[in-house]
Amino acid sequence: PAGWAGGQPVAGALMGAGDVIAQQLVERRGLHGHHSQRTLKMTAIGFCFVGPVVGGWYRILDRLIPGATKAVAVKKMMLDQGAFAPCFLGCFLAITGVMNGLSVEQNWAKIQQDYVDALLTNYCIWPPVQIANFYFVPLVHRLAVVQCVAIVWNCYLSWKANRL
């Protein structure tokens, strides 16, 4: 659909920006301690995974639950947060572990360590954002809107996924 392809560069750029914020404001690495490779990896994950998967999911969700009422927005949020978010988050953590060179055993241990906390944090942030997104925002702009709201979430995910 028109407008959807623009979500990938936005998702990539905002994942990268979230990592820069995580490194500079949360981890306080400073410019000399900044891990540019990590920022590039997070940008790549945003571009190659987050953008296409979330954009595709929004198209599927619109076909599964058509309409634009408040009740439809709540139904979409419930499916998004109940089915998609848990799977997406697990895949995100696994991909980040692979990109960071973790062995299968190390990656599994890291996922077990971080998954529940990340999912619970997700549930504190995303349900109201998604209801508003599904109710007010046209499909072609949802990924970009979510990624703009997600700059803080991306910072958290980058920090969580890159704590070794």
UniProtKB/TrEMBL annotation:
Its main location: membrane. Belongs to the peroxisomal membrane protein PXMP2/4 family. InterPro entries: Mpv17_PMP22. It is a multi-pass membrane protein. This is Mitochondrial inner membrane protein Mpv17. Keywords: Membrane, Transmembrane, Transmembrane helix. PANTHER family: PEROXISOMAL MEMBRANE PROTEIN 2, PXMP2 MPV17 (PTHR11266), PROTEIN MPV17 (PTHR11266:SF17). It comes from the Eukaryota. One of its GO terms (biological process) is regulation of mitochondrial DNA metabolic process. It is found in: Membrane. The chain crosses the membrane at residues 42-61, 82-102, 139-159. GO terms for molecular function: channel activity. One of its GO terms (cellular component) is mitochondrion.
